[in-house]
């Protein structure tokens, strides 16, 4: 449609009163599939009115790169959904993922980098390597008994790897308070990964009040755990002149030295809680990966062969990633099929994509699911084929594969996903074949969240 200034707006389907185009999202497993189907009719950049919220959906590698990179600074805010406000004590700016762009967010990201992207051959990398290896040994021991829930085992050990790596704090993974903390994170993670019509029609929020209160209660319990069992007396005792040993100390040092932009201790704690919560993403991802593998005996055999050929009986560790390209490609393939969480952006100024005008305040959905599943970009995209990521025995990531977004708001945890998943997957495959009594299930796609006990596996010793 042409504006008065003679510019073009993204085309849009006919809308209904009040709900706008919300009804067009129903009938699909994931909203991404609705986006792909609508793009066939309305083009790669089209507008949607979801309830009260003006949105634009961006499809196609070129357009998505324009939004993430070339004009990344035009689209670096996040939506103001009331649900997010309530989850972060009435201020979504406390959240690492849902805040708008600011110098504070830049500082928080810069501070995190050293821990979430540990460089190879550094002490931090080797320490993480040892944490992942010892966590994996415990996972293997726990799964050998086949009596506990896989998701629970993986979640507790991933949480322990995260608290050890970011906070230098190790826990007994069977201890009740720690298990409760892991369960609370999992419930919150599930909640933030759900799409709610109330995000677009706020008058529906009262229907969610009870649930939101419950989830808010869980966030408070996590805060109590962090203060009582992770921070303990560290804030007061840390000497600001000292070099920080972990992420907790980096935050304490920053807050205590009053650097600019200022970060309150409360905000710093939210950042810490968010990053510890990354373990839920890794754990849920791993369980979905096992669900794919239980249906793919040939892929398991290929991984077994690769590990046996390259390492023999030597224990797999995260340093072996480049030596085991097929094993690593299996992780990429699962990420491709599961698809990224939908983490919308918001235009912080009037801008355009592919020549079409986008107004300030518009919510932007980037359809990276389509980039991962398009038959134009992938051979047999529905199939689980790790070899698609391998060329001449090396792992190759195609340019159109963008599961972690990009630019200044790109995922802060992708390296942790790759390293921790590789270590645990490698250790499990070295020891087991994964089976399931019934493999007629489909693996849920379009979100990383997974309800408890969705899958029951059999880990059979090799
Ligand atoms: C398979 C697992 C994961 C996938 C597919 C994934 C994907 C994504 C995507 C698509 C975004 C939005 C990026 C953008 O707007 O350009 C994002 C943001 C983010 N992710 Fe992840 N993520 C995963 C795991 C993790 C983990 C384990 C952590 C923490 C250790 C993490 C931390 C974050 C943070 C903090 C942001 C927000 C960054 C910002 O807005 O500045 N993610 N992730």
TrEMBL record:
Q: Which UniProt keywords apply?
A: Heme, Iron, Metal-binding, Monooxygenase, Oxidoreductase, Signal
**Record-linked InterPro entries:** Cyt_P450, Cyt_P450_CS, Cyt_P450_E_grp-I, Cyt_P450_sf
Query: Which protein, by its recorded name, is this?
Result: Cytochrome P450 307B1
Family under the similarity heading: Belongs to the cytochrome P450 family.
What cofactor requirement does the entry state? Answer: heme
Q: Which gene encodes it?
A: AUGUSTUS-3.0.2_15030
GO MF entry, a single one: monooxygenase activity
List residues binding heme. 411
Pfam families xrefs: p450
Q: Which Gene3D superfamilies match?
A: Cytochrome P450
Q: What CDD domains does the entry give?
A: CYP1_2-like
